[in-house]
């Protein structure tokens, strides 16, 4: 869970970023088997090849992400900077698809779930009655995001194919019914909730968040705002202050 104080939305995006665009990651020996450790390092190297953000091996003398074994998968969003380190929880099920570890590393980088964007309701309808009550919070759009949609969407279009979008039957009560329904299903024919690889928009989101001028910024994506136009209108300006709610990934 990440809890933020009352700050400007633009300031919050900056606060999510890791200093020097570098994420130190510690995988302790004996925590995971060698195959899983290999998969984590492979995911780190893969993201390094696509963005200016760098995941590196950590030392215990620096603030870092510590990978711990768990029954599930979970991460804080962005650089929290509280205590000696922050946890990245990865259980055996997190390695069944290569995109699951990448999903969690994108959270570490500072990206939120795609289906909690402030414009989410234009694209999907959340079926609250078929979602486990203890998981409702995973579908809530934080109020601070609704007050500054152009900023938090990073100038990029809604992405059904994002690694950070839930599938349409996640956390359902009745598994024969969905937790989310596409409002215009004819507009997207791919797999919602895929866990294979980051989409082009996922890559662009990281690069826009970290102002990676020499990397892919998604200007060619249909519906995207040109990065320089978006950056000048949003990220370079402090906005009015908002208060966030608790966010759990």
Please, how many helices? 7
Our estimate of the beta-strand percent is 5-15%
Query: Order of strands in the sheet with the most strands?
Result: 3-2-4-6-5
Q: What kind of sheet is the major sheet?
A: 5 strands, mixed
Question: What is the tally of beta strands?
Answer: 9
Low-confidence stretches: 1-7, 238-249
- For CATH, the homologous superfamily of the largest domain is named as Collagenase (Catalytic Domain)
Could you say how many structural domains there are in total?
2
Q: What name is given to the CATH topology of the largest domain?
A: Collagenase (Catalytic Domain)
Q: Helical proportion? A: 25-40%
Give me the Rg, rounded: 18 Å
Distance between the termini: 7 Å
Series of secondary-structure elements, N-terminal to C-terminal: EHEHEEEEHEHHEHHE
């Amino acid at each position: 869970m990440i809890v933020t104080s009352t700050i400007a939305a633009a300031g919050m995006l900056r606060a999510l970023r890791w200093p020097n665009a570098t994420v130190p990651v510690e995988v302790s020996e004996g925590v995971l088997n060698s195959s899983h450790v290999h998969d984590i390092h492979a995911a780190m190297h893969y993201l390094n090849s696509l963005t200016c953000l760098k995941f590196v091996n950590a030392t215990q003398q620096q603030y870092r992400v510590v990978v711990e074994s768990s029954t599930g998968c979970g991460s804080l969003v962005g650089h929290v900077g509280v205590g000696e380190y922050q946890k990245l929880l990865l259980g055996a099920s997190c390695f069944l698809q290569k995109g699951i570890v990448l999903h969690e590393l994108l959270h570490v980088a500072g990206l939120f779930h795609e289906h909690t964007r402030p414009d989410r309701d234009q694209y999907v309808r959340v079926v609250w009655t078929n979602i486990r009550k203890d998981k409702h919070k995973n579908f809530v759009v934080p109020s601070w995001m609704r007050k500054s949609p152009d900023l938090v969407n990073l100038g990029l279009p809604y992405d059904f194919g994002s690694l950070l979008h839930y599938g349409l039957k996640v956390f359902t009560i009745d598994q024969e019914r969905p937790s989310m329904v596409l409002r215009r299903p004819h507009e997207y024919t791919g797999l919602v909730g895929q866990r294979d690889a980051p989409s082009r928009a996922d890559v662009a989101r990281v690069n826009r968040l970290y102002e990676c001028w020499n990397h892919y910024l998604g200007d060619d994506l249909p519906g995207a705002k040109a990065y320089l136009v978006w950056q000048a209108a949003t990220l370079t300006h402090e906005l009015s202050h908002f208060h966030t709610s608790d966010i759990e990934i």
